[in-house]
């Protein structure tokens, strides 16, 4: 149920109304810019390369960003103890801290790995609790 024609439903979702533009529709200004650049990509690229080779810092940065974009996520390797119980998470966390302190991992990489360790620890802990509960229920029956 909606309180108004274009309002929100009682569950907070939007009711019927203007669906907006179809997905993938481009703004008029974007369409105009693309029309102006149509067929000029090769000459613009050549000019950017010429400027970069001539020492233009902005053009050089632009070209290098296209050739070798910055990596957002890279695999890392370091020793991590095997986690078979929730108690092993403390050892794994210690190994991550040592790797960060030794410079084998960046603090950001360490934080991401710690989040993975914590998620896995919770999974192990839940599994252990389920097993203990099943054993108690089996004893009670």
UniProtKB/TrEMBL annotation:
Chain spans, region Disordered: 1-29
InterPro entries named in the record: TerB-like
Superkingdom field: Bacteria
Protein name as annotated: DUF5681 domain-containing protein
């Amino acid at each position: 149920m909606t309180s108004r024609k274009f309002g929100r439903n009682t569950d907070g979702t939007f009711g019927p109304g203007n669906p907006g533009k179809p997905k993938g529709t481009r703004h008029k200004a974007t369409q105009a810019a693309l029309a102006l650049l149509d067929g000029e990509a090769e000459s613009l690229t050549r000019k950017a390369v010429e400027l970069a080779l001539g020492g233009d810092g902005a053009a050089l940065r632009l070209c290098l960003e296209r050739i070798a974009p910055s990596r957002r996520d890279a695999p890392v390797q370091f020793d991590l103890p095997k986690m078979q119980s929730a108690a092993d998470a403390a050892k794994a966390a210690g190994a991550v801290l040592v790797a960060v302190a030794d410079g084998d991992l960046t603090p950001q990489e360490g934080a991401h790995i710690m989040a993975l360790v914590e998620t896995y620890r919770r999974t192990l802990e839940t599994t252990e609790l389920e097993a203990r509960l099943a054993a108690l229920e089996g004893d009670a029956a």
